[in-house]
Design a protein that fits this description.
This protein is α+β, with helices and mostly antiparallel strands. The chain has a domain of 120 residues: Mlu1-box Binding Protein, DNA-binding Domain (Roll). It is built from six helices and four strands, in the order H-E-E-H-H-E-H-E-H-H. Strands 1-2-4-3 form a four-stranded antiparallel beta sheet. The termini are far apart.
């Protein structure tokens, strides 16, 4: 890929590409080092070396390495060959870790990609907030309409239950007996 410095407002990577790279690991939204390297247009090895040279900037809540078990699960999801590809578990970068990468990787492409990644994380957070709000409103509506429909269902049940037999009136004219 030819690297060019983007003009102001120009998008280098589509937002969908970035959001597809974000996954949930250990309860954190993260991007793996290999996906970040691809986005930054560098080798994963180069990205990892830059991080290791500045390891003080990446505490455990910014970056962590997947366990072998997590790595095997991930590898089985992507159906990679057992003999090829990566041989060590990848590093996962949280939103703060990705932000910190901008101070480690100083190329113009890395800066612009970082901005797009930060926007993707913000957009995901907004979507989650919207979905939470929507779920809350739906629950309120269910409570409201359950109460209203209870009255309707009670009325239907009352109509369906047979009432006590009434005394029949004789047909025709004559004295009534009780």
């Amino acid at each position: 890929m030819a690297t060019k410095t983007p003009r102001k407002g120009e998008i280098i990577v589509p937002m969908e590409r970035i959001t597809q790279s974000i996954m949930l690991v250990r309860g954190h939204k993260v991007i793996l080092d290999s996906d970040l390297a691809e986005l930054y247009e560098v080798e994963a090895k180069v990205l990892t070396q830059a991080v290791k040279r500045n390891i003080d900037r990446f505490p455990a809540d910014f970056m962590f390495q997947l366990t072998n078990q997590e790595f095997n699960i991930l590898r089985s999801q992507f159906v990679t060959s057992s003999w090829g590809g990566r041989r060590y578990p990848p590093y996962a970068f949280t939103e703060q870790g990705v932000a910190m990468l901008s101070s480690v990787l100083r190329s113009p492409t890395a800066i612009h990609i970082n901005i797009e990644i930060m926007r993707a994380f913000v957009r995901l957070r907004q979507l989650l907030t919207t979905n939470t709000e929507l779920a809350r409103k739906l629950a309120a509506l269910e409570r409201k309409y359950d109460a209203q429909f209870k009255v309707v269902f009670d009325a239907i049940r009352e109509l369906m239950t047979p009432s006590a037999p009434r005394a029949k009136r004789p047909i025709g004219f004559g004295p009534w007996e009780k």
